[in-house]
Specification:
Rossmann fold; 13 strands; alpha/beta; 19% strand; Dihydrodipicolinate Reductase, domain 2; 346 residues; 12 helices
Length: 346
């Protein structure tokens, strides 16, 4: 059995990690970490775990946890994991970090976008970006994984095949994305109150959302050059889900059939990326509660542009499910173990 601990277990992503790991046949949860609720029964914070979890919340002592767990999931605010990781800890356990601390390799870029001094830049080169469909082999041998953000996961997987094949102009990419309110976390914020969100949709982080450099980096690696793109997220009144609609100019003369063949060649053997039938647009309700991401592509011959579409559950494939998928790879397990739940509907 893999002994696992979760730091930040009472946030939305941490709670989702717990839910998934409780159904994983190869995992024993040994630590429900929560600085805000230390000593309180975990099922008292999330009553959906009543009679399923008897443990109390513990603190964020990763040094102590490293002696008890084979893997630590850190579902914490930016800066915390990086302030606690060290060589001694990584020599005893593996770490899967759900914050942005190790996603961006350029220290100055990270510090500029996140407004934080990076506490341990010495581990940036070692950390593997945990997008399983692209970095699978590196993840297998890693001891420190930077779990991708929800918007970057959906955006990158939606665009990756055609930018990798040189079909589009990288500098023409525009990403329009929508997210449910759970993406903002469980903390109390005025903008997330029911009366502020209900019957409303709004753009936020315009021309400055922190996921922008992460998306640019990953698509830049795909096309082997630096790029600049436009990314605008929107908040919509639903609990879960991300929908991405992205646009780019064609760099090659290609038919929609040929474009779809490229997608099938990249994703048909993937457990969790579903290329939809021709003409079918991804919808958040068809991936809710699952680790699937649905993608599709259309070519607008009138404007000579590609329209990319993708949908995923921001708490599963966009966070906790992807973290469990990474854990499976790191420990040589079936990549889909504990993640085969079909999407929920209604």
């Amino acid at each position: 059995m893999i002994r696992a601990g979760v730091i930040g277990a009472t946030g939305y992503a941490g709670n989702e990690i717990v839910r998934l790991l409780l159904g994983h046949r190869d995992v024993e949860l040994v630590w429900y970490g929560s600085k805000s609720y230390t000593g309180k029964p975990y099922a008292g914070v999330y009553q959906n775990f009543y009679r399923l979890v008897d443990a109390a919340c513990l603190d964020d002592n990763m040094e102590e946890l490293a002696d008890e767990a084979d893997v630590i999931f850190t579902a914490t605010p930016q800066g915390l994991c990086a302030s606690l990781v060290n060589e001694g800890l990584l020599s005893r356990t593996k770490v899967i970090d759900l914050s942005a601390d190790f996603r961006i390799k350029d220290v100055e870029k990270y510090e500029s976008w996140y407004g934080l001094r990076h506490p341990c830049p010495q581990f940036l080169e070692e950390a593997v970006y945990g997008l399983c469909e692209i970095n699978r082999e590196q993840i297998r041998s890693s001891r420190l994984v930077a779990n991708p953000g929800c918007y970057p996961t959906c955006s990158t997987l939606s665009i990756y095949p055609l930018i990798r094949e040189g079909v589009i102009d990288p500098d023409s990419v525009i990403i329009d994305a929508k997210s449910g309110t759970s993406g903002a976390g469980r903390g109390t914020k005025l903008d997330n109150l029911y009366c502020e969100v209900n019957e409303n949709i709004k753009a936020y982080g315009v021309a400055g959302h922190r996921h922008t450099p992460e998306i640019e980096d990953q698509l830049g690696y795909a096309c082997k050059r630096e790029l600049r793109l436009t990314f605008t997220p929107h908040l919509v009144p639903m609990n879960r889900g991300i929908l991405v609609t992205a646009y780019a100019s064609l760099a090659k003369d290609i038919s929609e059939k040929e474009a779809r063949e490229i997608y099938h060649s990249y994703y048909d053997n993937e457990s969790f990326v579903r290329v939809l039938e021709e003409g079918v647009c991804p919808q958040t309700k068809w991936v809710e509660g699952s680790n699937y991401v649905d993608v599709n592509v259309r070519i607008d011959t009138r404007t000579n542009r590609v329209i990319f579409m993708g949908a995923l559950d921001n708490l599963v494939k966009g966070a906790a499910g992807q973290a469990v998928q990474n854990m499976n790879l790191m420990f040589g397990l079936d990549e889909a173990e504990g993640l085969r739940q079909p999407p929920m509907f209604p």
